[in-house]
Design goal:
globular; 133 residues; alpha/beta; single chain; UDP-n-acetylglucosamine1-carboxyvinyl-transferase, Chain; two-stranded antiparallel ribbon; 29% helix; 3 helices
Length: 133
């Protein structure tokens, strides 16, 4: 298992998104400590929780630990990525683009076509817009 310090570098959520996507593609589990440790409000926000839940949903047989708003440590054990129809709702105006960053690469490499519906913010002030992905 790889351990990552989430306060290193820019200290934001990008390391969380990249780690999940790469974990699903490579099958390598990871643990992140100090999640978003470089931010004014460290820990997971709602859209990060949704992205982790999405990664667990597309990775059949995987496991996620510590997934809650405000969590500062998470563990992710990827499962086998299955193509299919998926729907994920952030539940706030939080960025759907952040969720898409997590699941797009693994689903593109899955065993067939997928359909993905994301509900939440698309043009938020602090997060990536779909046009930048």
């Amino acid at each position: 298992m790889i351990t990552i310090d989430g306060s290193e570098g820019e200290g934001g959520g990008q390391v969380v998104r990249n780690a999940r996507a790469l974990s699903l593609v490579t099958g390598t589990p990871f643990r992140i400590v100090n999640v978003r440790g470089g931010r004014e409000k460290p820990g997971l926000m709602r859209q990060h929780v949704t992205a982790i839940e999405a990664a667990c949903a597309i990775g059949r047989g995987g496991a996620c630990e510590g997934v809650a708003v405000g969590a500062r440590e998470i563990t992710f054990r990827p499962g086998t990525v299955d193509a299919g129809e998926y729907r994920f709702a952030v539940g706030t105006a939080g960025s759907t683009g952040l969720v898409l960053q997590t699941v797009l690469m693994p689903l593109l490499l899955a065993n067939g076509p997928s359909r993905l519906v994301l509900e939440g913010g698309t043009h938020t002030t602090c997060w990536r817009h779909h046009s930048t992905l």
